[in-house]
């Protein structure tokens, strides 16, 4: 599903070039559910941005679902992202003037009929326990409910790769656990590949697999020597 080869990415900071990612090789199989852990500033979000095609590495190959992202220009990476990636943010990124349902409707594939759209929306809002809340504005929902709506938005079109960047980072512990287990359960049932950044080791323990970014990243290993 994911294959990285000799990927490196640096950022220019105060006139200096700072290496952030230097990943010799990494493979993720289709359907894996992985928690990505590591200290703040170690490049976790940068790695997700590379995988979603928001940024390109300076060097190396990035393959996702057979697509060579490193060869794609921005427009093609945008198409790839719209079709194949569901992204879940720490702070939900719901549009505040739209209801939960309207937020999801925005990204429903244009090929879907009105009826299919309505059926799917009903099904998914029920599946995440928001059937009575879908006509609420984000501000009328709890933070956990907002993230459930954002999960529906990320998953409804069944993109093959779900990327979640600290999806429970702004939730209290119990809500975080419930939201994480919902996300894991849906991705398992739908056989989606899930990569979730979390700094909470208890939440990471819920995942079938965990990877520390410092085990992927040659930079840190070199510095540690
Ligand atoms: P993490 O998600 O692990 O906390 P990030 O991937 O967000 O880390 O960032 C890694 C490092 O790269 C940080 O030092 C950050 O300041 C830097 N960085 C990230 N994005 C940019 C950017 N667009 N320009 C310059 N520096 C950046
Ligand atoms: Mg981050």
From TrEMBL:
The UniProt entry, under SMART domains, shows: AAA
State the Gene Ontology terms under molecular function: ATP binding
Keywords of the record: ATP-binding, Nucleotide-binding, Transport
Superkingdom of source: Bacteria
Q: InterPro entries from the xrefs?
A: AAA+_ATPase, ABC_transporter-like_ATP-bd, MacB-like_ATP-bd, P-loop_NTPase
Report the Gene3D superfamilies cross-referenced here: P-loop containing nucleotide triphosphate hydrolases
> Is this entry keyworded NAD?
no
Instruction: Tell me the leader sequence span.
Output: none
Q: Where is the ABC transporter domain?
A: 2-225
Q: Show the Pfam families listed in the entry.
A: ABC_tran
Query: Per the record's keyword annotation, is Glycosyltransferase included, yes or no?
Result: no
The UniProt similarity line reads: Belongs to the ABC transporter superfamily.
Under what name is this protein listed? ABC transporter ATP-binding protein
Its source organism is Paenibacillus aestuarii
- Source lineage: Bacteria, Bacillati, Bacillota, Bacilli, Bacillales
């Amino acid at each position: 599903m994911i294959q990285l080869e000799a990927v490196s990415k640096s950022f220019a900071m105060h006139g200096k070039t700072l290496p952030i990612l230097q990943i010799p090789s990494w493979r993720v199989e289709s359907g894996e559910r992985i928690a990505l852990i590591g200290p703040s500033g170690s490049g976790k979000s940068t790695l997700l941005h590379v995988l979603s095609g928001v940024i390109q590495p300076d060097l190396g190959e990035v393959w996702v679902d057979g697509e060579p992202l490193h060869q794609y220009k921005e427009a093609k990476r945008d198409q790839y992202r719209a079709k194949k990636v569901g992204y879940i943010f720490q702070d939900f990124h719901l549009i505040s003037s739209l209801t939960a349902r309207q937020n999801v409707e925005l990204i429903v594939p244009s090929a879907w009929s009105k009826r299919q759209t309505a059926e799917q929306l009903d099904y998914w809002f029920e599946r995440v326990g928001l059937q009575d809340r879908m006509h609420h504005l984000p501000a009328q929902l709890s933070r956990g409910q907002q993230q459930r709506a954002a999960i529906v938005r990320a998953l409804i079109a069944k993109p093959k790769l779900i990327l979640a960047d600290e999806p429970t980072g702004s939730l209290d512990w119990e809500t975080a656990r419930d939201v994480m287990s919902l996300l894991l359960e849906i991705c398992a049932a739908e056989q989606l590949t899930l990569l979730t950044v979390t700094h909470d080791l208890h939440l990471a323990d819920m995942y079938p697999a965990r990877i520390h970014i410092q085990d992927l990243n040659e930079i840190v290993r070199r510095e540690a020597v």
